[in-house]
Amino acid sequence: MNTAFFTHPSFLLHQMGPGHPECPERLEAIAEALEQTGLIDRLQLAQPRAATWDELALAHTPEYLDQVRQRLTGLGEVVQLDPDTAANPHTLTAALHAAGAAVQATQWVLEGRVRNAFCAVRPPGHHATRDRAMGFCFFSNAALAARVALRVHGLQRVAVIDFDVHHGNGTEDVLADDPGVLMVGLFEHPLYPYSGVPPKGNNMLNLPLPAQTGSAEIRELIRAHWVPALERFKPELLVISAGFDAHQLDPLGLLRLTEADYRWITETLVEVAGRHAQGRIVSCLEGGYHLHALARSVMAHVDVLAHDGEQHRG
Question: Given 60, 126, 127, 167, which residue is catalytic?
Answer without folding.
Answer: 127
